[in-house]
Amino acid sequence: MSRIIAGAAAGARLGSVPGTGTRPTTDRTKEALFSWLEARGWCEGTDVLDLFAGSGALGLEALSRGAASVVLVERDRRAAQVCRANAALVARAAGGRPARVLVQAVERFLASAEAESADLVLADPPYPLDGDELTAVLEAAAAALAPGGLLVLERSVRSAPPAAPGRLEPVESRTYGESALYFWQDPR
């Protein structure tokens, strides 16, 4: 079971998606990611887009830590129900700032007019999504960034390192156990 690590909803236990269709980010990786983000001012007051949200743990961690808005995009209906329940739990603890949960494929969402300019995009796609498909998602996610925005991708350390999408510049990459995190920023 995942939990909110810090912020207004610290300690809240999040529901998990039943079955093996999702791969939750470990608390260790989530803690390291958000320590990195907070140290650089990427949580407080930001607009966050959580792609392939699963239980919503990453986006909701950002909400707990002061994000201005969070959109969770998840195509699986069961996972989206868990996202909604978790979002309600965190919203109560964080002073009523709710996250929006959208039930649709990430690719479809990013191609729509509904894809808003986000300061921070968190993407944790299923590991089988690779090659040209992953590149296309990253390119579309880069287009959803506000000027100066940050895109963070979580992948398996066994996956080939992805190329920087479009105009984004690599900031750094880090590994935590079996997870690799890639950080890219829009130079505008």
Automatic annotation (TrEMBL):
Broad EC category: transferase
Pfam families in alphabetical order: Cons_hypoth95
Keyword Magnesium found: no
Domain of life, per lineage: Bacteria
GO MF annotation, one: 16S rRNA (guanine(966)-N(2))-methyltransferase activity
Entry EC no(s): 2.1.1.171
InterPro entries registered for this protein in UniProt: DNA_methylase_N6_adenine_CS, RNA_MeTrfase_RsmD, SAM-dependent_MTases_sf
UniProt keyword list: Methyltransferase, Transferase
Protein name in the entry: 16S rRNA (Guanine966-N2)-methyltransferase
Source organism (scientific name): Micrococcus cohnii
